[in-house]
Amino acid sequence: MKRNRSGLRKQIISIICVLISVMSIILMGISYRAFYHTYTNFYYDKALGIVKMLANEVDGDRIAHYVETGETDEAYEILRKRFDNAKANTSGLSYLYIAVPYEDHFVYVLEASTDQDNPDNISKLGDVFEYGETEYIYLLPDIQAKSASTQIVYGADVGFGKSISVWAPVFDKDGNVAAVVEGDYVLTSIEKEINFYVCRVFLFLVAALILITFIMIRVINTGVVTPILKLTDYVNSYQKSGSTPEPVKCKNENEIKWLADAFDNMIVRIGKYVEDIRSITAEKERIGAELNVATQIQADMLPSIFPPFPDKTEFDIYATMTPAKEVGGDFYDFFLLDENHLALVMADVSGKGVPAALFMVIAKTLIKNRAQMGGSPAEILGFVNDQLCEGNEADMFVTVWLGILDLTTGKGMAANAGHEKPAIRRAGQNYEFVRTKHSPAVAVIEGMKFREHEFELHPGDSLYIYTDGVAEATNAQNALFGDERMMEALNSNPDASPKELLQNIQQAIDEFVGDAPQFDDITMLCLKYKGTGSEGEI
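Now predict its structure.
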């Protein structure tokens, strides 16, 4: 898929433009408010100074006479000229007048005018102005306090728009407020000045925006985008060819250079890692092949042809071994010592994997070779124990159940070296555990003497021996299969043939364990005796 190589540049430029635009709008807003506030305060202070000065020039004792009689005099005309000159020459006020305040209205005494004013818009002596909200909120409290304006008051006039209003009291000889002098600045001209200033600021910001954007684009393109594109080509080249390309060179010592150096180091490490993986994979394949051979060798060492002795009708036997890994430490064995004696072996080597398998081979070979030389199970295990203790630096050991059965009588001798207790089924009954005193495991203590005991099987009786991998099979909830479930599986069809019996147990284990991994070898052997003899125990 073709990728847009200018995508990052466009995104950065867009972000810069948006940020600068937002900053420009904010700065213009702040500038406008600050400028507007400064101008209005300036004109407020100017107007307030003028009305205070003029209020001091008004004779408060004559104001009531003018309002009551509606007649003017020479002093009134002099006062008018003073106000007209103040409006025309010094103040620049839009309105300037004297009024007598009452509770809900005030009465005009005089209003200043200039040649530019429309005479019809000039209030005359005796004209009444009804108070609005502004007068109630601002004017009356100041009059009651005998104070001039205490804050900027923004008013509105139908003919002139927004305005700033200020006033100052005129006192009579008794110190009472006889009138107020009020002045108004219409904000139209002020706002024109403010708007002109804002336009200049806006044009300056636009020019600055264009300049800053251009500079930042150049800097980002040279210092960020171009090196990143080179890094992209660098990585793509490595991805396509698999060979290490020429390193990206960055002039400036900054984060981009550090990133380029990190890419260089990463690609070198990846190359080394790939070579290591290839070597490890080849070694793993070799080990896997050898383990497959070892698995086959171990399987071939265990009796796997059933029935093993077709000409022997005194018994039926079947055994299985399922290792947890490629090779395991469990093993079983059965072999004829002579025409009438059958040796049965079930063993479990400590540990897992290859070490356990090697120890298993030695133990199995020693047991079989020594058993074929003659002797009781205790003697056989004693010999094997001494042999395995020599040079056992790994401190490995093996639990063993070893029995020798006389096929003609059903009598036998057995020794249990730390192994699981066997189970026996008498003809027509269920399987039950047979508990006897155990000896320590083989290869634990050199010179150990092992216990042995007699047992006897009758025609129809069955013997079941196994390793701890059966009872200790674990499901996903870390629950054990256990002796109770094993016994239930044995007695679900106790009269089954040895092969069917082991299949039933394995099925029960598989259903219980589910998808949980197998942690231990599972080894089982079942023998059904068909000869005759007297009852005994294992």
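DSSP finds eleven helices and 16 strands in the chain.
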